[in-house]
Amino acid sequence: MTAVKRYEPAIHNIRYGIKGVLLYLLPLPVLITAIGSLMRGSVIDTLVTGGVFAAYMLGATIARQGFRLQGEYERRKIARAPSTPFKTIAALLIAITTAVLDWWTSSYALAAIPEAILIGAVAFLGFALYYGLDPRKDKASGLSIGVTIDEVLDALDAANVKIDAIESARRKINNPEFNIRLQRITSKAREVLSSIEDDPTRLARARKFLKVYLDGTQRVTEGYARTHREQQPAALETNFSRVLDSIEQTFTEQQTKLLEDDHFDLDVQIEVLETQLKREGVL
What we know:
Elements: H1 9-17, H2 22-25, H3 28-40, H4 43-75, E1 78-79, H5 86-105, H6 113-131, E2 139-140, H7 149-170, H8 176-198, H9 203-227, H10 234-259, H11 263-279
Antiparallel strand pairs: 1-2
Helix pairs in contact: 3-4, 4-5, 5-6, 7-8, 7-9, 8-10, 9-10, 9-11, 10-11
Protein backbone atom coordinates (compact mmCIF):
# COMPACT_ATOMS: atom_id res chain seq x y z
CA MET A 1 0.00 0.00 0.00
CA THR A 2 1.31 3.45 -0.88
CA ALA A 3 2.54 5.47 2.04
CA VAL A 4 0.58 8.64 2.58
CA LYS A 5 2.04 11.72 4.20
CA ARG A 6 -0.27 13.14 6.83
CA TYR A 7 -1.54 16.63 6.19
CA GLU A 8 -0.24 19.01 8.86
CA PRO A 9 -1.87 22.44 8.31
CA ALA A 10 -0.63 23.86 11.61
CA ILE A 11 3.07 23.41 10.74
CA HIS A 12 2.45 24.65 7.21
CA ASN A 13 0.61 27.78 8.41
CA ILE A 14 3.27 28.63 11.00
CA ARG A 15 6.07 28.27 8.49
CA TYR A 16 4.53 30.57 5.91
CA GLY A 17 2.83 32.79 8.46
CA ILE A 18 6.17 34.21 9.67
CA LYS A 19 7.87 34.42 6.29
CA GLY A 20 8.36 37.99 5.16
CA VAL A 21 8.07 39.57 8.63
CA LEU A 22 11.50 41.13 8.05
CA LEU A 23 9.99 43.24 5.26
CA TYR A 24 7.89 45.05 7.86
CA LEU A 25 10.92 45.75 10.07
CA LEU A 26 13.38 47.11 7.51
CA PRO A 27 11.44 50.37 6.80
CA LEU A 28 11.25 51.35 10.50
CA PRO A 29 14.09 53.92 10.11
CA VAL A 30 11.98 55.61 7.42
CA LEU A 31 9.08 55.82 9.86
CA ILE A 32 11.35 57.38 12.49
CA THR A 33 12.53 59.91 9.88
CA ALA A 34 8.92 60.72 8.99
CA ILE A 35 8.06 61.32 12.63
CA GLY A 36 11.12 63.54 13.00
CA SER A 37 10.12 65.55 9.91
CA LEU A 38 6.62 65.98 11.30
CA MET A 39 7.96 67.24 14.62
CA ARG A 40 10.16 69.77 12.77
CA GLY A 41 7.13 70.96 10.81
CA SER A 42 8.61 69.97 7.44
CA VAL A 43 5.50 69.13 5.41
CA ILE A 44 7.24 68.00 2.22
CA ASP A 45 9.69 65.75 4.01
CA THR A 46 6.88 64.27 6.09
CA LEU A 47 4.80 63.51 3.02
CA VAL A 48 7.72 61.94 1.16
CA THR A 49 8.99 59.78 4.01
CA GLY A 50 5.46 58.89 5.08
CA GLY A 51 4.59 57.87 1.52
CA VAL A 52 7.79 55.83 1.24
CA PHE A 53 7.00 54.03 4.49
CA ALA A 54 3.44 53.31 3.33
CA ALA A 55 4.78 51.96 0.02
CA TYR A 56 7.15 49.64 1.85
CA MET A 57 4.30 48.38 4.05
CA LEU A 58 2.14 47.77 0.99
CA GLY A 59 4.99 45.91 -0.70
CA ALA A 60 5.45 43.72 2.37
CA THR A 61 1.74 42.91 2.48
CA ILE A 62 1.64 42.01 -1.21
CA ALA A 63 4.76 39.87 -0.77
CA ARG A 64 3.18 37.99 2.13
CA GLN A 65 0.24 37.08 -0.09
CA GLY A 66 2.73 35.75 -2.62
CA PHE A 67 4.48 33.73 0.09
CA ARG A 68 1.17 32.21 1.14
CA LEU A 69 0.30 31.16 -2.41
CA GLN A 70 3.78 29.78 -2.98
CA GLY A 71 3.48 27.81 0.25
CA GLU A 72 0.30 26.17 -1.03
CA TYR A 73 1.99 25.55 -4.38
CA GLU A 74 4.99 23.87 -2.74
CA ARG A 75 2.86 21.82 -0.33
CA ARG A 76 0.76 20.24 -3.05
CA LYS A 77 2.07 17.67 -5.49
CA ILE A 78 -0.33 18.92 -8.17
CA ALA A 79 -0.93 22.65 -8.29
CA ARG A 80 -1.58 25.58 -10.57
CA ALA A 81 1.01 28.32 -10.66
CA PRO A 82 -0.30 31.51 -8.97
CA SER A 83 -2.31 33.50 -11.50
CA THR A 84 -1.11 36.82 -10.06
CA PRO A 85 2.66 37.24 -9.50
CA PHE A 86 2.35 38.88 -6.08
CA LYS A 87 6.02 38.41 -5.16
CA THR A 88 7.21 39.98 -8.39
CA ILE A 89 4.82 42.92 -7.94
CA ALA A 90 6.07 43.38 -4.38
CA ALA A 91 9.70 43.25 -5.53
CA LEU A 92 9.05 45.92 -8.16
CA LEU A 93 7.20 48.14 -5.69
CA ILE A 94 9.98 47.84 -3.11
CA ALA A 95 12.64 48.49 -5.79
CA ILE A 96 10.87 51.63 -7.08
CA THR A 97 10.31 52.87 -3.54
CA THR A 98 13.98 52.34 -2.70
CA ALA A 99 15.00 54.25 -5.83
CA VAL A 100 12.70 57.15 -4.95
CA LEU A 101 14.04 57.22 -1.39
CA ASP A 102 17.64 57.32 -2.65
CA TRP A 103 16.80 60.12 -5.10
CA TRP A 104 15.06 62.07 -2.32
CA THR A 105 18.11 61.82 -0.07
CA SER A 106 20.12 63.30 -2.98
CA SER A 107 17.86 66.40 -2.96
CA TYR A 108 16.23 65.38 -6.26
CA ALA A 109 19.42 66.02 -8.22
CA LEU A 110 19.23 64.95 -11.87
CA ALA A 111 22.75 63.56 -11.66
CA ALA A 112 21.59 61.21 -8.90
CA ILE A 113 18.95 59.50 -11.05
CA PRO A 114 21.27 56.79 -12.48
CA GLU A 115 22.49 56.00 -8.97
CA ALA A 116 18.89 55.80 -7.71
CA ILE A 117 17.96 53.42 -10.53
CA LEU A 118 20.97 51.27 -9.72
CA ILE A 119 20.02 51.17 -6.03
CA GLY A 120 16.47 50.19 -7.00
CA ALA A 121 17.78 47.41 -9.24
CA VAL A 122 19.94 46.12 -6.40
CA ALA A 123 16.88 46.10 -4.12
CA PHE A 124 14.94 44.06 -6.69
CA LEU A 125 17.84 41.65 -7.11
CA GLY A 126 18.22 41.30 -3.35
CA PHE A 127 14.52 40.46 -2.96
CA ALA A 128 14.68 37.95 -5.81
CA LEU A 129 17.77 36.23 -4.43
CA TYR A 130 16.52 36.07 -0.84
CA TYR A 131 12.81 35.31 -1.37
CA GLY A 132 12.69 34.19 -4.98
CA LEU A 133 10.04 35.17 -7.51
CA ASP A 134 6.69 33.54 -8.23
CA PRO A 135 6.49 30.02 -9.66
CA ARG A 136 5.23 30.27 -13.25
CA LYS A 137 4.73 26.61 -14.21
CA ASP A 138 1.94 24.29 -13.11
CA LYS A 139 2.94 21.21 -11.12
CA ALA A 140 1.41 18.21 -12.85
CA SER A 141 3.53 15.21 -11.96
CA GLY A 142 1.84 11.84 -12.21
CA LEU A 143 -0.94 12.90 -14.57
CA SER A 144 -1.92 10.27 -17.11
CA ILE A 145 -3.73 10.42 -20.41
CA GLY A 146 -7.36 11.40 -19.93
CA VAL A 147 -6.76 13.18 -16.60
CA THR A 148 -6.16 16.93 -16.69
CA ILE A 149 -4.66 19.11 -13.99
CA ASP A 150 -7.84 21.21 -13.87
CA GLU A 151 -9.99 18.13 -13.35
CA VAL A 152 -7.83 16.87 -10.48
CA LEU A 153 -7.48 20.26 -8.80
CA ASP A 154 -11.19 21.07 -9.10
CA ALA A 155 -12.05 17.76 -7.44
CA LEU A 156 -9.47 18.25 -4.66
CA ASP A 157 -10.55 21.84 -4.05
CA ALA A 158 -14.22 20.83 -3.83
CA ALA A 159 -13.36 18.04 -1.40
CA ASN A 160 -11.27 20.38 0.76
CA VAL A 161 -14.17 22.85 0.95
CA LYS A 162 -16.41 20.07 2.29
CA ILE A 163 -13.77 18.92 4.78
CA ASP A 164 -13.37 22.50 6.03
CA ALA A 165 -17.16 22.73 6.43
CA ILE A 166 -17.16 19.52 8.49
CA GLU A 167 -14.36 20.92 10.66
CA SER A 168 -16.27 24.16 11.14
CA ALA A 169 -19.41 22.28 12.22
CA ARG A 170 -17.35 19.99 14.46
CA ARG A 171 -16.06 22.96 16.45
CA LYS A 172 -19.67 23.86 17.34
CA ILE A 173 -20.31 20.44 18.88
CA ASN A 174 -19.54 20.16 22.59
CA ASN A 175 -19.52 16.36 22.75
CA PRO A 176 -15.81 15.34 23.14
CA GLU A 177 -16.42 11.83 21.77
CA PHE A 178 -18.07 13.11 18.61
CA ASN A 179 -15.30 15.69 18.18
CA ILE A 180 -12.59 13.02 18.31
CA ARG A 181 -14.43 10.78 15.85
CA LEU A 182 -15.03 13.61 13.41
CA GLN A 183 -11.35 14.56 13.63
CA ARG A 184 -10.41 11.00 12.70
CA ILE A 185 -12.84 11.10 9.78
CA THR A 186 -11.52 14.39 8.36
CA SER A 187 -7.94 13.24 8.88
CA LYS A 188 -8.62 10.11 6.84
CA ALA A 189 -10.30 12.22 4.18
CA ARG A 190 -7.23 14.42 3.83
CA GLU A 191 -5.03 11.34 3.59
CA VAL A 192 -7.14 10.11 0.68
CA LEU A 193 -6.78 13.49 -1.05
CA SER A 194 -3.03 13.24 -0.54
CA SER A 195 -3.06 9.76 -2.07
CA ILE A 196 -4.88 11.15 -5.12
CA GLU A 197 -2.14 13.76 -5.49
CA ASP A 198 0.39 10.91 -5.34
CA ASP A 199 -1.47 9.03 -8.07
CA PRO A 200 -4.10 11.11 -9.94
CA THR A 201 -5.39 7.96 -11.68
CA ARG A 202 -7.13 7.17 -8.38
CA LEU A 203 -9.45 10.13 -8.87
CA ALA A 204 -11.83 8.19 -11.12
CA ARG A 205 -12.30 5.50 -8.45
CA ALA A 206 -12.40 7.91 -5.51
CA ARG A 207 -14.73 10.53 -7.00
CA LYS A 208 -18.02 8.78 -6.21
CA PHE A 209 -16.83 7.60 -2.81
CA LEU A 210 -15.63 11.04 -1.77
CA LYS A 211 -18.89 12.59 -2.92
CA VAL A 212 -21.06 10.15 -0.95
CA TYR A 213 -18.76 10.19 2.06
CA LEU A 214 -18.08 13.90 2.28
CA ASP A 215 -21.57 15.08 1.30
CA GLY A 216 -23.15 12.74 3.82
CA THR A 217 -20.74 13.63 6.61
CA GLN A 218 -21.09 17.35 5.96
CA ARG A 219 -24.88 17.27 5.98
CA VAL A 220 -25.26 15.13 9.07
CA THR A 221 -22.57 17.05 11.01
CA GLU A 222 -23.96 20.47 10.13
CA GLY A 223 -27.47 19.25 10.95
CA TYR A 224 -26.40 17.93 14.34
CA ALA A 225 -24.40 21.09 15.09
CA ARG A 226 -27.52 23.22 14.43
CA THR A 227 -29.89 21.19 16.60
CA HIS A 228 -27.87 19.78 19.48
CA ARG A 229 -27.65 23.15 21.27
CA GLU A 230 -31.42 23.52 21.35
CA GLN A 231 -32.25 20.06 22.59
CA GLN A 232 -30.38 16.82 23.10
CA PRO A 233 -32.86 13.94 22.97
CA ALA A 234 -31.31 10.51 23.29
CA ALA A 235 -32.60 9.53 19.84
CA LEU A 236 -30.74 12.41 18.21
CA GLU A 237 -27.39 11.46 19.73
CA THR A 238 -27.98 7.77 19.03
CA ASN A 239 -28.77 8.40 15.36
CA PHE A 240 -25.77 10.70 14.96
CA SER A 241 -23.47 8.18 16.62
CA ARG A 242 -24.78 5.39 14.38
CA VAL A 243 -24.20 7.43 11.24
CA LEU A 244 -20.65 8.25 12.35
CA ASP A 245 -20.06 4.54 12.97
CA SER A 246 -21.15 3.72 9.42
CA ILE A 247 -19.10 6.48 7.86
CA GLU A 248 -15.92 5.84 9.83
CA GLN A 249 -16.00 2.07 9.44
CA THR A 250 -16.80 2.14 5.73
CA PHE A 251 -14.25 4.82 5.00
CA THR A 252 -11.47 3.01 6.85
CA GLU A 253 -12.13 -0.10 4.79
CA GLN A 254 -12.39 1.76 1.52
CA GLN A 255 -9.28 3.83 2.11
CA THR A 256 -7.34 0.56 2.03
CA LYS A 257 -9.24 -0.79 -0.98
CA LEU A 258 -8.75 2.43 -2.90
CA LEU A 259 -4.99 2.29 -2.44
CA GLU A 260 -5.01 -1.39 -3.40
CA ASP A 261 -6.99 -0.65 -6.59
CA ASP A 262 -9.86 -2.92 -5.55
CA HIS A 263 -12.53 -1.57 -7.94
CA PHE A 264 -15.31 -4.06 -7.30
CA ASP A 265 -15.28 -3.95 -3.48
CA LEU A 266 -15.06 -0.17 -3.58
CA ASP A 267 -18.24 0.21 -5.64
CA VAL A 268 -20.11 -2.34 -3.54
CA GLN A 269 -19.23 -0.65 -0.25
CA ILE A 270 -20.09 2.78 -1.65
CA GLU A 271 -23.58 1.53 -2.43
CA VAL A 272 -23.89 0.08 1.08
CA LEU A 273 -22.83 3.37 2.67
CA GLU A 274 -25.14 5.37 0.42
CA THR A 275 -28.07 3.16 1.40
CA GLN A 276 -27.27 3.60 5.09
CA LEU A 277 -27.07 7.36 4.79
CA LYS A 278 -30.37 7.51 2.90
CA ARG A 279 -32.02 5.36 5.54
CA GLU A 280 -30.83 7.82 8.20
CA GLY A 281 -32.23 10.71 6.17
CA VAL A 282 -28.84 12.23 5.43
CA LEU A 283 -28.96 11.92 1.63
